[in-house]
């Protein structure tokens, strides 16, 4: 067991960063399965691991913008890792993924939720790490939008989380991995139907935050009518991160079938 005053290594700090990105904030607690599993693996207390995660979170501008200050006893290592994450983006997430997956022996069971993100069904190797890091980023993006939109579809008000999708306004594949992919103002929280329609360009959002349905959508099916029902309707505004105009413009010009 690491002593109370033992400094955290870079690898331990990266493992804590991995959990911060992979888990919803309510799971980052000393009683959480994954916090306890990492604590056992690195020889520290669950409380120490939870505090380390929130020390890292104290540098997250997305949390600060929501009024979440976080812990105030972060170390130089915490700051260095967060600065590197802010500048390196996906590259550091891949490194954190590799550390979490391969550098520690987990005796305590991980939660089913984290196992799904990690993808134990995937073959080991660099490809797995790239897939897992992408899943972790997407999970973090989704958790951010759930908070931002109060866990409700911004169009219909649907609150069943199993049917809610974190939709990128400027698509993930063309978004800058360092500055745009995880930006909460590049996202809408939509139900599965409207997410698919948004992704396929059948609907878009205007700069005054109203829904527009494409003329290619007919009136033949109930699904068509469910899209047209919201034509011209405003979305419910998020708590903090209002969709950015440049992302909306991209979707209007490059995705929407106007």
What does this protein look like?
The chain has helices spanning 10-22, 33-42, 46-57, 61-65, 76-88, 90-102, 112-118, 126-148, 192-199, 222-228, 245-255, and strands spanning 164-168, 187-191, 203-205, 211-213. By secondary structure, it is mainly alpha-helical. It has a two-stranded antiparallel ribbon with strand order 1-2. Strands 3-4 form a two-stranded antiparallel sheet. Helix 1 (10-22) packs across helix 3, helix 2 (33-42) crosses helix 3 (46-57) and helix 6 crosses helix 8 (126-148). The longest helix is centred in the middle third of the chain and has 23 residues, at 126-148. The mean pLDDT is 88.
* Oligomeric state of this protein: single chain
Contiguous low-pLDDT stretches (5 residues minimum) are: none
Strand/helix succession: HHHHHHHHEEHEEHH
Largest sheet, if any? Answer: 2 strands, antiparallel
Short characterization:
By secondary structure, the chain is mainly α. Helix content is 47%, strand content 6%.
């Amino acid at each position: 067991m690491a002593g109370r005053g033992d400094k955290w290594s870079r690898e331990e700090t990266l493992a804590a960063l991995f959990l911060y990105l992979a888990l919803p904030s309510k799971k980052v607690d000393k009683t959480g399965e994954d916090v306890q599993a990492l604590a056992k693996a690195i020889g520290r207390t669950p409380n120490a691991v939870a505090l380390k995660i929130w020390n890292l979170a104290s540098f997250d501008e997305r949390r600060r913008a929501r009024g979440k200050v976080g812990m105030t006893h972060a170390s130089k290592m915490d700051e260095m890792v967060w600065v590197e994450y802010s500048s390196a983006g996906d590259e550091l997430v891949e490194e954190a993924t590799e550390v979490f997956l391969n550098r520690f022996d987990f005796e305590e069971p991980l939660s089913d939720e984290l196992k799904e993100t990690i993808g134990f069904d995937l073959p080991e190797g660099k490809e797995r790490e790239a897939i897992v890091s992408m899943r972790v980023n997407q999970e973090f993006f989704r958790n951010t939008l759930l908070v931002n939109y109060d866990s409700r579809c911004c169009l219909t008000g649907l609150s069943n989380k199993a049917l809610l999708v974190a939709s990128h306004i400027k698509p993930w594949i063309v978004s800058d991995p360092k500055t745009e992919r995880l930006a909460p103002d590049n996202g809408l929280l939509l139900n599965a139907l409207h997410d698919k329609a948004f992704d396929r360009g059948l609907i878009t959002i205007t700069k005054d935050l109203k829904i527009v349905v494409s003329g290619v959508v007919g009136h033949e099916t109930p699904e068509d009518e469910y899209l047209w029902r919201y034509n011209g309707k405003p979305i419910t505004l998020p708590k903090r991160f209002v969709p950015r105009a440049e992302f909306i413009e991209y979707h209007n010009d490059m995705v929407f079938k106007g």
